[in-house]
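INFO worker-7 received task bundle
INFO bundle size: 2
INFO processing item 0
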Amino acid sequence: MISFGARRMHPAIVPMIERSAYIGGCDAVAVGKSAELIGAAPVGTMPHALILVMGDTLTDTRAFHEIIDKTVKRVSLIDTFHDEKFETLNVAEAMGKDLYAVRLDTPGSRRGDFLKILQEVRWELDLRGFKDLKLFVSGGLNEEEILRLNPVVDAYGIGTFISNAPVVDFAMDIVEIEGKPLAKRGKWSGAKRVVFCPHCRARKILPLKDKQDLCTCGKAYIDLLNALLSSGKAVQTLPDPRPIREFVLGQLASL
């Protein structure tokens, strides 16, 4: 599972980034407004600030457990003051089956080999009978680090490397004037169709007037470019994020 949280950004931007992250494959979002957009409950854990104010990880976890709605899974943040292994064991032994997971948000300056730290924590938990306790990780993680940590980590909180992801370069060029194809050098003139075959996953760019509907595999194309607005009015209803997400995940599975 990958949950997403974007911080230190303009509040109007975050919900749309998180909506896109959910559509792109993340399992949950952290901001309340973002959760409204996707029609789901927000997901998150306690912050370092709460532990700093209360002064102790176990005291904070017990208070969280006492006050927060029981439908929220108990995830203790265990890297604020002490060694990750001993803090995890301390909280796990005190909370027992009420504890769902621990989160390691260890700063890069303190990590050393983060995988080795996580393997050590997992070993000590399993040795003491806490095999069901999950390990969550956050803090400046990118796709390469996730692949490396996957053998031992159950969930990730990703922010920076989604909210500040590399851009997809594009340009909005004129390709047609008064119905006549015209474009600058290096650009293909004329309005276009972009079609996709859901069977063999072939994609093709066609002139707009080209009515070719069948792929070379014999299956029907789907048009990927469809008008949403005409003269300022909506001409079709947007689907909810969930079916969009299912379509995206179906494509990712074939990569």
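INFO item 0 finished
INFO processing item 1
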Amino acid sequence: MIFLAVTMGFIAENIRESITEHNRAKEYAETMVADLSADTTALRADLTYTGFSVHNVDTLMQLLSSSDIKSISSGKLYWYGLYGGAQPSFTPNDATFQQMKSSGSLRFFKKSIAREVATYDRLCRRSISLEEGDHVMFAEVRKLRAQIFEFQYNKQANDLSNASHPEKINRNKVIAFCNSNPPLLTYDKSIFNQYVEMVRSRFMDRKIVVADTLLRKANKLIVDLKKEYRIDN
């Protein structure tokens, strides 16, 4: 009888502990879903910004490869050249993950969910590493741009730009600016070539791939967390 009582007590304690861990896992899952939802919003904006920038940089390269610099309206050079200095930035909302990691609470998650979370975190670290590696290149791009474009006209182009929301850009004003001819500081082809090569070295296309992968992983993890822990929308 004593053995049976001890055994039943042990089983009951395991059940209580399992219920407690499941409830804690659900609490963490709910806050992680909120973090991931914020990430998806930021990543979509990042993809829009970077994609728009890459498109304009490609246009600049086509212009320079097909025409003599002096035959291109300088407004176009200012506008499309502006995006070589684009600086997309994504910072993951990882407070819940870091808390779980430091406290050992990731064990509360189902193993397949915990693996997904760890994979997503590794991808976030990769994205941050890419951005950190781009900082030096970004600074050099800005220096070269300052040798080509006058500040006041560069600012005019920048004021017209809203790359995070391309649909909000006033197209008529952009067309008018592109058809204008504000002065450049130089028409030296070698400086333009250095600028374009430096911009190409920033590998913004790679950033799009990483951000897109992150977005897909975040969306899948949200779905799996909601399903596993019965989280309402």
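INFO item 1 finished
INFO post-check item 1: The radius of gyration is 26 Å.
INFO post-check item 1: Residues 8-16 have pLDDT under 50 and may be disordered.
INFO worker-7 idle
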